[in-house]
Amino acid sequence: MEKRIGVIHYNFSFTFLEDFLGWCKEKGCEYVEIQRSDIWIKNEEPEKTTEKVAKLLKKYGLKVSQVSAGNDFIQKTKEEFNNQVNIVEKVSKLVKILDANQLRIDGGWPKEGVEENKFKELIIEGIKKTLEFAEKENVYFALDNHGQVTNDYILQLEIFEKMKSKKLGANLDTMNYRWYGWPVKKLVEIYRLIAPYTLHTHIKDGIGVRSEYKGKVFGEGEIPLIEVIKILKSNNYKGVWCIEYEGNDKEIGYEKCINWLKENL
Q1: Of 33, 43, 100, 44, which is closest to residue 70 (Cα–Cα)?
Q2: How far apart are CA 192 and CA 227, in angstroms?
Q3: What is the tally of structural domains in the chain?
Q4: Helix/strand/coil (H, E, C) string of the chain?
Q5: What distance in Å separates the CA atoms of residue 4 and residue 30, rounded to the nearest whole number?
Q6: Are the C-beta atoms of 153 and 187 separated by less than 8 Å?
Q7: Which structural domain range is residue 128 located in?
Q8: CATH value at residue 94
C-alpha cells in the first residue's frame, strides 16, 4: 500500500517556505499542507504569489494535500461573516493554481458579542454558502475538529448529515478531541464515527487537556495512533497521512514522527 505521508507547514523554525519544502523533500515526504498565509501575503497579489509557490513545489517534487483557509464563520456582523465566506471562495480558486483541490476549513471560534446558541447556525450557514462554490468548482472541504466548537464530534456529525455533500468531509485531527476534553477511552469510538467522512488527517500525539496539553512525538503520548490508523484503513481511507507535531523540538520532533509513521503505516 502506498504510504502517502505529508507534513503541515506549522511549528517549524524555518523563515522561508522554500526551506520547509527542501526539508520535506530531504526527509522523504511527498505531500505538504500549506497555510493561506503562504500564498496570500499582505501587499502581494495572491495569484502571483501562488504561482511562485507552485513553481517551488514543482522544483522539489512535492504535492499539496490541502490548503488551510484559516476561516472563522462565527462572526458578529453580516459583513464580517460574508468576508469569511469570500476568503474560503478565494482560497478555493488559489488552490487550483497549486494543482490541488482541497481546503481545510474551520467552523470558528467563540468571541465576545456572539451568543453560543448561534455558533452552529453560523457555521452551517457558512459551510452551506461556500459549498455552493465547491460543488461548482470541484473543490473539497475538510472540516477540522479544532478549538472549542468543532471538537464536539456530535456537532461535526450533525453538519455532515445535514449537508450531505461529497465535497464536505472531515480533517481528522487525532489529538484535538483529547485536547478538547474527551477521555482517552472515548477516542476510538469518536474515530470510528468520523472515519467514514474523513478526507484528510492531522496525525498528532500528545498528553493532557487544554492548558495541560503538551505535544509529543508519535508513540510517546496518550493517543491510540495505531488504532486510528487501523480504523481509517478499514474505512478505505485514501488520503494523505499528514503529520502535525506541536512539541518543542520542531524539526527533530517532526523527523521522529515521520520515521514512526513510515514504520507503522
Answers
A1: 33
A2: 10
A3: 1
A4: CCCCEEEECCCCCCCCHHHHHHHHHHCCCCEEEEEHHHHCCCCCCHHHHHHHHHHHHHHHCCEEEEEECCCCCCCCCHHHHHHHHHHHHHHHHHHHHCCCCEEEECCCCCCCCCCHHHHHHHHHHHHHHHHHHHHHHCCEEEEECCCCCCCCHHHHHHHHHHHCCCCEEEEEECCHHHHHCCCHHHHHHHHHHHHHHEEEEEECEEECCHHHCEEECCCCCCCCHHHHHHHHHHCCCCCCEEECCCCCCCHHHHHHHHHHHHHHC
A5: 7
A6: no
A7: 5-264
A8: 3.20.20.150
Closest CA to 8 of 263, 186, 253, 265: 253
Task: Residue 50: name the closest of 59, 42, 40 by CA.
Answer: 40
For the stretch 172-222, pLDDT in tens is 999 999 999 999 999 999 999 999 999 999 999 999 999 999 999 999 999
105-122 pLDDT, tens digit each: 999 999 999 999 999 999
User: Taking Cα atoms as reference points, which of 8, 15, 98 lies closest to residue 49?
Assistant: 98
Q: Name the one residue in this structure whose C-alpha cell is 527533530.
A: 252
